Structures are given as C-alpha cells and as structure tokens.
C-alpha cells in the first residue's frame, strides 16, 4: 500500500478514544474515495502508516466489514467493497423504507430545535452558490436530523449504518450534480410535510425522494457501463 495522497488518514493519531479515531479515519477515507473500491487493506501497513498498533486497526476493520464498506475477497483478504448495481439496489430499497418511516415519525414527534436545524440545512442546500462540500454537509445534516427527530434509537442506528453508503454515492461525480436541481425541491417538500405535522405526506415524499435518487443513479451507472462496453467492442 503506497502512502500517496490518502487525505489525513496517515497522520499520527493521538486521541483519547484511539479505536474510534482509527475507525473514523478509515471510514471517511473509503467514503471519500481516498481508499478506492477493490483496494487491498493490509492491517500491518495501515497500522504503520497511522502510527498505531494493529489492535485498533483490526477492530476498525471489523466494524467496516459489519457496515459492508469492507469485504473479504477470499484471496487477498480484506478489500474496500466495490459498488455494484445489485448492492445499490439492495441499499436503496432498504433506505426507501427507513427514510420514509423516519420522516413519518419526525412529523409525529416534531421538535422546534430540530425543525430549525432542518430548516437551516435546507437553506444551505437551496443557496445556489454554496460549495459542493457545504451542500454535502447540509444534505447529511438534513437526513441525520430527520432520523434524530424520529426519536427511535433503533431506526437512528439503522440509518447511521447506511450513511456511509449514502455519502459514498453522493461523492461520485456520476450521481449528484445532475440531480441537485431536482433534489432540492424534494427536500423542501419533505420539510414542509414535517413542519405541517403530516406524517403520511412526509413518508410519501421521503420515499419518493429516495426512489427517484435510486432510479437516476442506476440509469446513470448502467449508461456508464454501456458506454464502456461499446467502446471496448469498437462501437
């Protein structure tokens, strides 16, 4: 494993919760693409680059395996999970149900402080001149706040487990930029339904948002794969 421009993951770690910090850095590197799909993850090399023992790295890798961000390929050992159309389909079908339920519960358990946070995140997303990073952070905040407003710890945990996958999708250039002009009004409708304490509409709008995101992503990726296939065959 080469120590080439892997973001901040190879800086020395010196924090109270070493295991959590190692996990956070590795997870973020995968989500951001600094550790690429299919890249071999060698426990000893990671520990050496991060200036830690192998134990926190091993624990972090176990967590990432549980989240589906790291898998065993049966030959080389642990690798960063590849993004397949089948995995995207599975994840978004689950996310559609969970996000819809979270929005329904958020409308029922509405809290003024969380509603303000939701509105602030939406304003950033609606600001045409925000940076890509600002948009992504506001987008994550919006969905995380709805989950928190659901007041269901099991649902919050389930959505948190999917967050890395969601962020990983948004970070791909195939996905986000062409969807922004459609995505922002979708988030506005979700917010308005929660604000009006209408759980049925909130659930429907949240599910519609995830469904259209999934369809757009799959169509885009299938087109991308088709272009490569035609090029390889000289078409």
TrEMBL record:
Q: Where would I find the HTH gntR-type domain in this sequence?
A: 16-83
SUPFAM superfamilies on file: GntR ligand-binding domain-like, Winged helix' DNA-binding domain
Q: Which GO terms describe its molecular function?
A: DNA binding; DNA-binding transcription factor activity
The record, for Pfam families, names: FCD, GntR
Q: Which UniProt keywords apply?
A: DNA-binding, Transcription, Transcription regulation
SMART domains assigned: FCD (SM00895), HTH_GNTR (SM00345)
Do you know which PANTHER family this protein is assigned to? GLUCONATE OPERON TRANSCRIPTIONAL REPRESSOR (PTHR43537:SF24), TRANSCRIPTIONAL REGULATOR, GNTR FAMILY (PTHR43537)
Protein name as annotated? GntR family transcriptional regulator
**Source organism (scientific name):** Sulfobacillus acidophilus
């Amino acid at each position: 494993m080469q120590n080439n421009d892997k973001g901040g993951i190879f800086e020395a770690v010196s924090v109270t919760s070493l295991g959590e910090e190692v996990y956070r850095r590795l997870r973020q590197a995968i989500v951001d693409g600094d550790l690429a799909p299919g890249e071999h993850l060698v426990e000893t090399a990671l520990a050496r680059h991060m200036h830690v023992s192998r134990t926190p790295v091993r624990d972090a890798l176990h967590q990432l395996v549980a989240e589906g961000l790291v898998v065993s390929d049966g030959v080389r050992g642990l690798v960063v999970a590849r993004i397949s159309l089948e995995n995207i389909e599975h994840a978004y079908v689950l996310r559609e149900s969970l996000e819809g339920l979270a929005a329904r519960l958020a409308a029922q358990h509405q809290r003024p402080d969380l509603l303000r946070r939701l509105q602030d995140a939406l304003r950033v997303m609606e600001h045409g001149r925000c940076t890509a990073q600002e948009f992504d952070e506001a987008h994550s905040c919006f969905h995380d706040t709805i989950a928190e407003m659901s007041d269901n710890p099991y649902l919050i945990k389930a959505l948190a487990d999917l967050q890395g996958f969601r962020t990983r999708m948004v970070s791909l250039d195939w996905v986000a930029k062409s969807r922004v002009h459609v995505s922002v009004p979708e988030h506005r409708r979700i917010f308005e339904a929660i604000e009006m304490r209408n759980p049925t509409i909130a659930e429907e709008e949240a599910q519609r948002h995830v469904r259209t995101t999934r369809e757009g992503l799959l169509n885009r990726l299938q087109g991308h794969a088709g272009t490569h296939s035609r090029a390889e065959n000289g078409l």
